[in-house]
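Case study B.
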Amino acid sequence: AQTVTQSQPEMSVQEAETVTLSCTYDTSESDYYLFWYKQPPSRQMILVIRQEAYKQQNATENRFSVNFQKAAKSFSLKISDSQLGDAAMYFCAYRTMEYGNKLVFGAGTILRVKS
Amino acid sequence: EPEVTQTPSHQVTQMGQEVILRCVPISNHLYFYWYRQILGQKVEFLVSFYNNEISEKSEIFDDQFSVERPDGSNFTLKIRSTKLEDSAMYFCASTPSRVAIEETQYFGPGTRLLVL
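Model:
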């Protein structure tokens, strides 16, 4: 079974600075999807960024980018120019390529942004 | 932009009572899911639903749980006899047509269930 590990329960960053959230996973599959979801205090789950394992290029979405290291099974999220609105719980999630399969989530990292 | 909706946003019930949580997935989506998140814990998969039947379910999804798509738009999760440990946030999610290469699950805002 696949597992996702987020080793940082909580992180802090100064506004306008850069922060990196860590995620590792375990799988025997060669192709899969990886996701970062943001959960603000409202508890809505919001997709931040998605990475396909077959793509070597790291995904980017505006201030959000990932460092995907397939061999190391590592998938970190970098947030540049942090904003107060980035404060939230961030979940890393894994999904196999098979259509419709469930997401497997990590335990989450609380990100605090200081002004 | 289309979005997944869920009702109610909050529900308080007595232990042993039945609850039905409702979701309206995005209209052209084909795969539907329920997840739950106990306060302070990770999001856990409950069940997936495709072509009017359960595709996969977790060990959490026991006989007390059932899902249904009663019409063309709603997707419901029923808990027959609620227990204290069912208190959680319940999220509905849906995925577009399998023609799409990148199949993202879009989440609803959640229903916060409190069992007393």
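Chain A has a mean pLDDT of 93. The remaining cases will be described in the next quarterly update.
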